[in-house]
Amino acid sequence: MNESRSNLARLFAPASVAVVGASASPNKAGYQALAALRGFPGRVVAINPKADGPISGFETLPSLRAVGAPVDLVLFAVPAAACPELMREAIDCGCGGGLIVGGGFAESGPAGAELQAELGRLCASSGFRLLGPNTAGFVNKQASLTACFVPSVDRLARGPIAVVAQSAGINLTVSFLLARLGAGISQAIGLGNAVDVDAADVLDFLAAQPETKAIALHLEGVNQGRKLFETLRRVTPKKPVAVLAVGRQDVGEFARSHTGNLLGSHALCVSALRQAGAVVVDSTEDLATTAAALSLHRMAPKSAPGIGVVTAQAGAGLVMLDLLKANGVTVPELGPATLQRLSANLPPITYLKNPVDTGRPGPTFADVLTAVTEDPHIDAVICYALSEPAALLPATVLPDLARGATKPILFGTMGPRDELEPTLAALRSAGIFAAESPEQLARAAIGLVQDAAAQARLALPQPERPPPRLAVPDVPDEHSAKQLLEGMGVPAPRRRACASHEQALEAFERLQKPVVAKVLSSEVLHKTEVSGVMLNLAERAAFTAALVRLDAIPLAGERRYLIEEMAPPGLELIVGALRNPSFGPTVVVGLGGTLAEVWRLTATRLAPLTSHDAEAMLEELRITALLEGFRNAPPLDRAALLRLLVSVGDWIHHHPEIEQLELNPVRLYQRGLLALDALLIRTPPAS
Amino acid sequence: MNESRSNLARLFAPASVAVVGASASPNKAGYQALAALRGFPGRVVAINPKADGPISGFETLPSLRAVGAPVDLVLFAVPAAACPELMREAIDCGCGGGLIVGGGFAESGPAGAELQAELGRLCASSGFRLLGPNTAGFVNKQASLTACFVPSVDRLARGPIAVVAQSAGINLTVSFLLARLGAGISQAIGLGNAVDVDAADVLDFLAAQPETKAIALHLEGVNQGRKLFETLRRVTPKKPVAVLAVGRQDVGEFARSHTGNLLGSHALCVSALRQAGAVVVDSTEDLATTAAALSLHRMAPKSAPGIGVVTAQAGAGLVMLDLLKANGVTVPELGPATLQRLSANLPPITYLKNPVDTGRPGPTFADVLTAVTEDPHIDAVICYALSEPAALLPATVLPDLARGATKPILFGTMGPRDELEPTLAALRSAGIFAAESPEQLARAAIGLVQDAAAQARLALPQPERPPPRLAVPDVPDEHSAKQLLEGMGVPAPRRRACASHEQALEAFERLQKPVVAKVLSSEVLHKTEVSGVMLNLAERAAFTAALVRLDAIPLAGERRYLIEEMAPPGLELIVGALRNPSFGPTVVVGLGGTLAEVWRLTATRLAPLTSHDAEAMLEELRITALLEGFRNAPPLDRAALLRLLVSVGDWIHHHPEIEQLELNPVRLYQRGLLALDALLIRTPPAS
Q1: Residue of B nearest to A625 (CA)
Q2: Range list of H helices, A405-536
Q3: Among the four given CATH numbers 3.90.226.10, 3.30.710.10, 3.30.70.1130, 3.40.50.261, the one describing domain B156-298
Q4: Which residue in B107, B318, B591 is closest to A595 by CB distance?
Q5: Is the pLDDT score of B129 beyond 90?
């Protein structure tokens, strides 16, 4: 494991590089790979068994073995079929890692998939680390290393941001958008088919690189979600990570139960990324903006940082305020001392409290900005002013001001490009984020706030509470599932499981009326779909008739009845714990009834949860008003609901034999709650 | 009226301009206004009673009267208090219009508001048109006229887009963002306080300007919503209009009833803009992108145009597809003939159907693009390729291709700025929209599609159906409101209005049990809040007890009872018709129950509605699945619901004496519907 880790560092920051399949003909990959290595200060060896002299001026040898020393990084510029054998040689020679740019692997069909699997097995058994196959490779600006990347990447400046993308097209798009923002890159890494090195591995490597101040990550689907989640939780407290996760329009992959249907995999992925401390964005543009801002202005963890808005144009201030508020950012009123300072520095104009609208900037502009920055409610300031050199020279005013401030000051402007460029360049070289629209400026602030809030959440204690160890029946049904729930401290209605009409009638006599009669069989996952639930039975005759109707449901095995007391009305919720193939155990909560299902309104987190995670789920679900007592209704037992979410999360986390536990519905009351139905599904045996 | 219209044209496209308050001292507005007029080819007169020679080289006279001929446009560069008197002089001289840059009007307090009102009265009584006060003025590139705009506006190129904004800051931000896209402006107009000339007036003027191909509009709140709506409906079929409406975070302004509470004014504004054919965007960036794309590539009206996506990088294709789908854009599979053409031109790669992923562009790239463009399912094509001059020269390939195509082809790219600039410039001068990120390209396409779909909707016949003329009682209560509904053909439960317990008991005997007993009084707007509704009364004793409880509700006037048959269960909806102070009659529909209220899920349109508008409301509400029969439930009577929405819209449209009609709830069934409750509020007498 440790060797595997150090080999990752050898791969991405090598002292020596070999190109296997080196070629002298310019349209071969083996030529281009060598050409890209021209600026690399370490040892470069061209490998070609047929060559009889240097290729492109590089030292050339017939094989990796002939090098005589283990090379850190091997670029395989050979056909797919030749890769496993050559990789074995590299492993035998003690090389650290390699990368395969070429295709012809899993993306090309079954034969390629088998080849790729073979590469994966070689890595797993040896500790050799492989990037790709089918990747554009990577650039390490710090090491002056361009490992097989596409053209024009040399034009990118060195800087504090690492870009990690599954697609080379997005990698370069984001890198050049960063360049537009004056931000250089430390690394740009393409993951390709990712048979061995995946996003999580790269994040771990980058976390230890001092030059990297922020990470921009692009994902097109996550195979090992849990690993990514755990890695992000470790990495984001050290370095901010902004993520663009493509695939909003994917529908959920789980069809086995209602909870599964509601759970879109993209929604789960985004929830998991946020829960792990990443800032999730919606576009390549926002990925660049957010990473650039975070690389310069990361704030200390804080649950709701206050943003000060200073603007020379009220219209732009309104646009920014609107966007900040739509994203839940706090724009606090300024304190009385600040207002006093502002009125001394500004003419009596319409709005001072925040946003502060200065009107056309005057000589006091710097004092205004300083006053807002020093307000105790403010954690960062954004300032927008159109280019108006006669009124304001931002490059003269801001750098001094920012140097003297203990809080981030971000700037935004717009105007003729040639007039703007020197200003933007001066600000950026002074370490000030500078945007080219009001929204870009606001989005930068939103990224800073979301990062600080996520880190504040992550910093809260994550208590270890192993739940009671409960035996899970081999073939669970509703009754045994509810017994398990009761063992966890989750109440269900009073009930009897009955094997015959006689037992059912006895239960009917003993229980409080009205009762519910349900078919009880592990064969039936969704009782309502087979008319397996008879509600509101108060009279004996109706009860008997209900049993007869339940008998009409075709069943292969044993037929039993579950007779339950009717629960009083309450707020109906769906609560589920579900083991996701990629992300592992998760908890989902949604409002009950068809509306929630039609609108797909649910909130999901990875288990185990803190009570703060559970609280965030309820906020995401926007049911705070309902819980607090909507329209004069009494407030509901929020604490009981939070406990339930945390409990089912702990429980699935500690019981790998459970694939799914679904409580649909749970009824929530002024005091406590009741699980009216329970579906428990065991994890299928590993194949 | 006609004079008022021609005066608007004199204001914005004058042959002569006078500056009242002309000054020789450079920091006075009267100096700057004159200086900005230097390039204007028409007559310019400086007005200053004390001057004894030309100011800044311009002909100078002591008064407007001294000019001897009516000037088209008068710039008032004088203190607020002097404006009314000088405007009277301008009116007396037959001047066309004016603009007031200075502040000190409604934004400054009551005295300023009265000054502003006086200006408004002068305009209304004379036909003189005033822009502002408190505006940055306007630029008319066609007329080489800069009327008092802020500095650096001269740097903007002339082109096909008119920018209209309430704020000068946004006006310039959008104009310079357009310049980044290579798009010039025909006019840039700041509305300021808009005491006379408002957005609708400007739109009407621009619709008649041949040079303007698309309009970018920024709104910060709409006072005369109905006027804007009607104007947009007239203008958008001639010229596309993109709108940024600030104020998402505003809450609704109407608090008098539930429907009012649900109806956020911003949501209403956006609905009205879309209903009138505008493309609504969310940022200054998207406003520029959308207007630029529409100025070049407006499509013919079509309800769901198909977009072809061609990409040299699969990652970028996925990003664009995701964004298009999230906005409901159709990305159709290509036909078999197209696929055949594509396979002849491309190596056997992963995806051809749409998006078409070409891999690294080869010599057949143009053929691929042509094949996709000619596919019968495709109405426009977007194409993204990273800058890679060795593989693709877009400026060589695309202009010819676009010239030969009958459908829009839009391009997007990214790379080093100096490498990109010549390509972008060449494409743009060939009339091709060129974006600098995958998302910007996709958003341009979304704008084209939304415009074409809106115009297809507007082109549908708008039938005139005056509803039955029904007498509205002076003091309506639930019973009389339901009688009115029945007159409109909207059924309500069988019921009796009763003045005494005796009458109520007789009704109880006659009606089908169970019944509902309600307090009947125009004093009670929300019966449930005073426990004024007793449900499910089947026994006489319970019924009598219910009457006694209704008697406990304190009432000043007459106490009556409404006894109704209980309606069977069904899908509960809220349907309202509401007269909005700005937008006039509107129709709103939402799902019943607290959830819809908590989540504020409603859809609104201005009345009268077409059935297509009503249909669009149900789609916006995302209840199609419910109406079609969710989870094996029978389908519901969608047609009856659509008729109801159209009916209440027609009705409020033709009955100005009605301020509000709220049906909460309406129950929808497999056949028909029932209005279970009805609240009718008369329009208060005009003050």
Answers
A1: B598
A2: 417-429, 438-459, 478-487, 501-510
A3: 3.40.50.261
A4: B591
A5: yes
Rounded distance between C-alpha atoms, residue A187 and residue A181, angstroms: 17
**Which residue is listed with tokens 């060449």?**
B426
**Gap from B218 CA to chain A (nearest CA, Å):** 10
ipTM of the complex: 0.93
- Cα–Cα distances (Å) from A325 to A321, A331, A445, B220, B625, in that order, read 6, 8, 12, 16, 32
Asked if B166's CB is within 8 angstroms of A598's CB, the reply is no
Architecture of the domain spanning A305-459: 3-Layer(aba) Sandwich (3.40)
Q: Which two tokens stand for residue B403?
A: 């010239």
Q: Does pLDDT of B447 surpass 90?
A: yes
Q: What's the token pair of residue A403?
A: 């140097």
> Which class would CATH give B494-565?
alpha beta
Q: What is the pLDDT of residues B258-273, one digit of tens each?
A: 333 333 478 889 999 9
Q: How far is B414 from chain A (nearest CA, A)?
A: 6
What burial letters (b/e) apply to A155-175, b meaning 16+ CB within 10 Å? ebeebbbbbbbbbbbbbbbbb
Contact residues on chain A for B438, CB-CB shorter than 8 A: 173, 284
What number of C-beta contacts closer than 8 Å exist between A and B?
Answer: 197
Answer yes or no: do A623 and B598 touch at CB < 8 A.
yes
CATH architecture of structural domain B299-459: 3-Layer(aba) Sandwich (3.40)
Enter the pTM of the model: 0.94
Query: Is pLDDT at A584 greater than 70 in this prediction?
Result: yes
Q: What is the mean pLDDT of chain B?
A: 91
A108-125 per-position pLDDT tens digit: 788 999 999 999 999 999
Of B218, B283, B322, the CB nearest to A247: B322
**DSSP state at residue A632:** G
Which residue in A has a C-alpha nearest to residue B418's C-alpha? A155
Would you say residue A250 has pLDDT above 60? no
Per CATH, which fold does B1-135 belong to?
A: Rossmann fold (3.40.50)
Whether the domain at B1-135 and the domain at B299-459 fall into the same CATH topology: yes
Q: How confident is the model at residue B103 (pLDDT cuts 50, 70, 90)?
A: confident
User: What is d(CA A90, CA A128) in angstroms, rounded to the nearest whole number?
Assistant: 9
Instruction: For residues B424 and A76, give the distance between their C-alpha atoms in angstroms, rounded to a whole number.
Output: 37
The answer to whether the Cβ–Cβ distance between A218 and B315 falls below 8 Å is yes
Name the E strands within A592-657.
602-606
Q: Which residue of B has its CA nearest to A136?
A: B313
Q: Across the interface, do B438 and A622 touch by the CB < 8 Å criterion?
A: no
- Chain B residues in contact with A218 by the CB 8 A cut-off are 315
Q: What is the domain class of A150-298 according to CATH?
A: alpha beta
d(CA B320, CA B440): 9
Which residues pair with residue B140 across a beta bridge? Answer: B145, B187
- Report the CATH architecture of B571-682: 2-Layer Sandwich (3.30)
pLDDT: is B443 or A582 the higher one?
A: B443
Provide the 3-class DSSP secondary structure of residue A366. Answer: helix
pLDDT tens for A499-525 read: 999 999 999 999 999 999 999 998 887
Task: Answer whether A597 sits within 8 Å of B630, measured CB to CB.
Answer: yes
Query: How far A408 CA sits from the closest chain B CA (Å)?
Result: 24
